[in-house]
Amino acid sequence: MAAPAPNTQQEMRRRNLARVLHAVADGGPQSRAAVAARIGLTRTAVSTLVDELLGVGLLVELGPGRSGAVGRPGTALALSDGGPCGIGAEIGVDHLAVCAVDLRGEVRARTAMDAANRDSDPGPVLERLAGLVGEVADEARGLGLRPAGLAVAVPGLVARGTTTVVQAPNLGWTDLDLAPRLAEKALGGGALTGGGSGNGGDSGGVGAGGTAVCSIDNEANLGALAELWLGGHTPPPDDFVHVSAEIGIGAAIVVDGELLRGTRGFAGELGHVPVRPEGRPCACGGIGCLEQYAGEEAVLRAAGLDPRATAAGHPGPGARIDLLATRAEGGDRAVLGALAEAGSALGTALTGAVNLLDPQTVVLGGALARLAPWLLPSLEHELGRRLAGPPPVSVSRLGADGPLLGAAHSVVRAVLDDPLAHRA
Questions:
Q1: Angle CA(151)–CA(156)–CA(162) in degrees, nearest 5?
Q2: Is residue 3 part of a domain?
């Protein structure tokens, strides 16, 4: 959806500063003349905007760079590798992770830890997460970066426009507002204030005046945003369904380049679409949900493996996925059968989504990317037999990193969208 036209001179200036930053972010180092041609402003106007962005440390000059026009090359502009950065965090069922991303999109600091978060008291989980956020924020500051906000990916439903996790069945959490707990402890105590969920029009990731903000969003939503921004598709798809998995299965829907959230913020709950109406009970209270046939633990059980088992030499987050992949690569018939059944269940659930949305493509991300070679045949067969002209199914190159990177980049993009709020 197109943004409304600015109605004051200050808003126009703010909008044009953002346009300059996005032009450099999207096109890489380039001259003032190239930026002017890209966004349709005069060179004089762009030069004034660039000088302001250089002055507040959001842009830097690298040296001579060609504009594509005849004449002397101009000075190449690039986003600063200092100044504001985005802090992204992820709460998984079996792990916690945090990273810092600079304006250029480079991961500058990162940490993770194993954590048995299923059915845990949220207090200790958030305490550990706040500690990891503090470590990464301190490391980022040591590199000359300034945390501009924190975005957290969670495996659950987040009420639109809030930081409240309404339900996270695999964590055992309900009606829990995460921001106040994290804001007290993370990023140096008072550096955070409450914010809204996610990116894409509900509420920004960063407050006015450079105040860092804590935002909370569903991990599948942030994985889809990462795919949209970082997936490397040429050209990037404007309409796709992004399916990801850890213990559970989530999905997110991108329409016309924007995340579709739904009235309450719950759009994309593919994991709880019934695929076997008289099937197994699910932690969400439903019956026969996709998660019970294609989730990580369901596949392990179907293969005759202990859901707590891990592959030798592969401890930590993703260990069970590594176990399944290792067994599948070795030709284990039970594992291959379980993955084929999971792919068929995914295809059944996706049939309804494709019929309703008519996307350009379906993207498998998260843990599903690692298992794609064995899921795709039965998934595509199911789509093919149920749909006339099914969309292509692609595999995310981001894999399990999608939600964490999406979280950090959502803060970075908030800086690019409103540079005046992030002057040093």
A1: 55
A2: no
Q: Which residue has the tokens 């106040």?
A: 180
**If you ran DSSP here, which 8-state letter would residue 360 be given?**
S
CATH code of 62's domain: 1.10.10.10
Could you tell me if 169 and 132 lie in one domain?
yes
**Domain annotation covers residue 215:** yes
In the block, residue with structure tokens 């990023």: 187
260 and 193 fall within a common domain: no
Q: What is the mean pLDDT of residues 117-131?
A: 91
Axis crossing angle, helix 367-386 with helix 333-357, rounded to the nearest 10: 60
pLDDT digits (tens, 9 = 90+) for 152-177: 999 999 999 999 999 998 899 999 99
Q: Which residues pair with 112 in a beta bridge?
A: 97
Q: Cα separations (Å) of 292 from 282, 287, 288, 341?
A: 7, 9, 7, 11
121 shares its domain with 136: yes
Q: Supply the pTM of this predicted model.
A: 0.87
* Domain-located, residue 89: yes
Rounded CA separation 119/323 (Å): 24
Boundaries of domain holding 161: 84-224+403-422
Tell which of 61, 79, 97 closes a domain. Answer: 79
Residues with Cβ within 8 Å of residue 304, at least 6 apart in sequence: 334
Residues 183 and 89 reside in one and the same domain: yes
In this structure, are 367 and 413 located in the same domain?
Answer: no
Percent of the chain residues past pLDDT 70, beyond the cut: 86
Report which residue type is found at 310. Answer: T
User: pLDDT tens digit string along 300-313?
Assistant: 999 998 776 654 44
Query: Lowest mean pLDDT: which of 73-87, 128-142, 182-196, 267-281?
Result: 182-196
Distance CA 296, CA 301 (A): 9
Mean per-residue pLDDT of the chain:
86
How far apart, in Å, are the Cα atoms of 160 and each of 120, 200, 227?
Answer: 24, 11, 21
